[in-house]
Each structure stands twice: as structure tokens, then as C-alpha cells.
Automatic annotation (TrEMBL):
Residues 87-114 form a coiled coil. It comes from the Eukaryota. It comes from Aspergillus tanneri. This is Urease accessory protein UreF. Keywords: Chaperone, Coiled coil, Nickel insertion.
Length: 371
């Protein structure tokens, strides 16, 4: 009996072991009943010795059968094909199970209405933003009216304060524009080059002609430096960010310079203005340049609105409405965009009258804010 006849007899006895689905060109999964119906097509279609090898391996017959139809390469190819098919099948099954698991979790969330907790992608800048935007941050910014009290007093003298809300709206717009043009170039320069903090701080001091505004900036800047040393420095000691490490070293240097000055009124050594110190502290705490500039401007707007509430110009709810308005957001964003690439030698006062209002504040007969 020939090998083909033996294989066919084994096939008839073990048909349940053979896979029923196949194509004519895939001998690894062919229907043997079809193949035996027309054995003359094996060599014509190119199956040849590989066909017999497939039959023997599929039926579990030893691969050591001596036959001119079976070769070692054919058996190796057959085994590799089987292993690849098994690996692919496992990968497909794993992918299917993972997809079904995700779908099941999504259905459970929809059914219960409770989404799993997901914290912020980078919690450190978020926490730093909350710390620096806190109204309880002891900088003393709310002790100043930023010129609002003097502005209102001078309007009363001229009889032009028929509508206090409209007058305040005009002042807020001018104040934000002036703060952006005079401080943002120095703030962004210090953020981008924290190692130049002393130079930038000195340039800002020399470029601030209004003595009252200069004193307010120095008081708040030194207060921020004190908060950094006593509260934030322990928690924010970056080791991987080279710029943040440089920022910390610059803060230490300017702090040492301020402590070593014999007479702060002499103007020797560092000064400690708010804008550059705010930038370097924010850099050390992991904030971006955009976040640093925006937060600085928002805090200024909050200080002006607080002064308006305490001056009885607007109510607290109106102040919060203005602070949350889209108009204020767009105004701040526009000013940041305008000053984003402004060098410090192009910084300047947009509204000269603002320096007059701020400077004449200490000449008022009675006042409720610091001068």
C-alpha cells in the first residue's frame, strides 16, 4: 500500500482531527476530502511534497516517515507557520479581551454615573498656581490702591464722577495696560534669563520714575522673597530642571545682597522689585512663562478690584463678576501677547497720567490706602 493510500485510510478514521475550512492554496488548513478527490492536481497546483507533509503533520503522524515527498525544509516551514499562527491567535485574543474590558468599564461608569478619579497630569504647577494666586499670600498688595484712590479724588475735584462704575471701568482698563507695558517685559526677561536677575532688577529700578510706584514694587517684591525663603523654598528644590536650579541660586544671591546692605536707602546692591522676583520665583516653582505672566496680571486686577470694593465704588458681587468676565480674560491675554517679545529697553508707560495719579496719592488730605 502506498503512502497516499495509508494517509487516506488514516484520514477516514480521524476526520474529526482535520480542520474543515480551507482554501486550495493553503495546505496548512485544507479539507483533505477535497484533496483526495483529485490527487492529480497536487503537483499541477504546486502542492507537491508540501501537501503530503501537511497531511502527515495534521493527522499527528511522526515526521520521521521516510518518503520522497517529505523534506526537512518543508517540516520546518510547517512548524514555523503553526507557531506564528498560534502567536497571532493569542495576540488577537488578548486585544479582544482588553477591548471588551474597556467597554465594560465604560458601561459601568455610564450606569453608575461615577467616573474614576483622575488627578492633574502634572500636579506641581497646579499647586504652585494655587499658592501664588491665594489672596492670603502676605505680599501687602491689597494695601495699595494702585492709583485708584487718587484717580477718584481728582475726578471729584473736577466734578466728573457722575457715574462711578463707568469711571472705575475706564481706570481698570488703563491700569492693566500700564502694568503690562511697564512690568511684563522685565518679568518675561527675568523668567527667560534667571541668572540675569540682579541686572534686570536694577534696570527696572532705574526705569521707574514714579517714587510711589517704586516703593510699592519694592515692598511687595521683598515680601515675596521673604515668603519664598520662609515657606516655599523647602518644598520646591528642583534637581532636574537646570533653569529652576539657576532661579533658586539667583534668589539666594539677591537675598544675600539685600541682607548685606548697610543702608537700603543708598541704592547700593540689589533692590528687589516685584516683577522680576515674581518671574524667578515662579520659574523655581515650575510654572510656565505664560502662567507666570497671566497670574501676575490677574493678581494686579484682583488688587484694583479689592480697592474699588473698599472705596465703595462697586460691590463685592460686581467685583467677582468683573474678575470672572470674558472681557477681562481677553484683555489680559491681549496685553500679554502684545508684550511677549518686547525687550526691556522698549518698556515704558502707556498712560503718563497714571504716574501722576499714583504719585499724587501721598498728597491727598485723607486716604485709606498706603502710599
Amino acid at each position: 500500500m502506498s503512502l497516499i493510500e495509508i494517509a487516506y485510510e488514516i484520514y477516514k478514521q480521524t476526520t474529526s482531527l482535520v480542520r474543515p475550512t480551507a482554501t486550495r492554496r493553503d495546505p496548512t488548513a485544507m479539507d483533505l476530502s477535497y484533496a483526495f478527490q483529485d490527487s492529480s492536481t497536487w503537483r499541477k497546483d504546486g502542492w507537491g511534497e508540501y501537501t503530503i507533509t501537511s497531511i502527515v503533520l495534521d493527522l499527528g503522524v511522526s515526521s520521521d516517515i521516510s518518503s520522497p515527498f517529505i523534506s526537512t525544509d518543508s517540516k520546518q516551514r510547517r512548524k514555523m507557520a503553526i507557531n506564528q499562527a498560534q502567536d497571532q491567535g493569542l495576540d488577537d485574543e488578548i486585544s479582544d479581551l482588553e477591548e471588551r474590558l474597556e467597554n465594560a468599564r465604560a458601561r459601568r461608569v455610564l450606569a453608575t454615573g461615577n467616573a474614576p478619579f483622575q488627578g492633574p497630569s502634572n500636579p506641581i504647577p497646579v499647586h504652585a498656581l494655587l499658592l501664588l494666586s491665594d489672596s492670603a499670600l502676605p505680599l501687602g498688595g491689597f494695601a495699595y490702591s494702585n492709583g485708584l484712590e487718587s484717580y477718584l479724588a481728582h475726578l471729584k475735584l473736577r466734578g466728573r464722577i457722575a457715574n462711578p462704575e463707568a469711571a472705575f471701568d475706564s481706570f481698570l482698563t488703563l491700569s492693566i495696560a500700564c502694568m503690562a507695558s511697564t512690568s511684563l517685559p522685565y518679568l518675561l526677561a527675568a523668567y527667560r534669563q534667571p541668572e540675569m536677575l540682579k541686572t534686570i532688577d536694577n534696570d527696572l529700578d532705574a526705569s521707574t520714575p514714579c517714587v510711589v510706584a517704586q516703593r510699592a514694587s519694592l515692598a511687595q517684591g521683598r515680601a515675596l522673597l521673604g515668603v519664598w525663603e520662609r515657606s516655599f523654598r523647602v518644598s520646591y528644590t528642583p534637581a532636574s530642571d537646570a533653569a529652576a536650579v539657576t532661579a533658586v541660586k539667583s534668589l539666594e544671591s539677591i537675598s544675600a545682597g539685600l541682607k548685606s546692605r548697610n543702608n537700603p536707602e543708598e541704592g547700593l546692591g540689589p533692590n528687589g522689585h516685584l516683577a522680576p522676583l515674581w518671574a524667578v520665583v515662579s520659574r523655581a516653582m515650575g510654572l510656565t512663562a505664560q502662567q507666570t505672566a497671566y497670574l501676575h496680571m490677574v493678581n494686579h486686577a484682583k488688587a484694583v478690584l479689592s480697592a474699588a470694593v473698599r472705596s465703595s465704588v462697586i460691590g463685592p458681587y460686581m467685583a467677582q463678576s468683573i474678575l470672572a468676565s470674558q472681557r477681562l480674560q481677553e484683555m489680559i491675554s491681549h496685553r500679554i501677547e502684545r508684550e511677549w517679545d518686547t525687550p526691556i529697553d522698549r518698556a515704558g508707560q502707556l498712560v503718563p497720567a497714571m504716574d501722576l495719579w499714583v504719585g499724587r496719592h501721598e498728597l491727598l488730605y485723607s486716604r485709606i490706602f498706603n502710599s
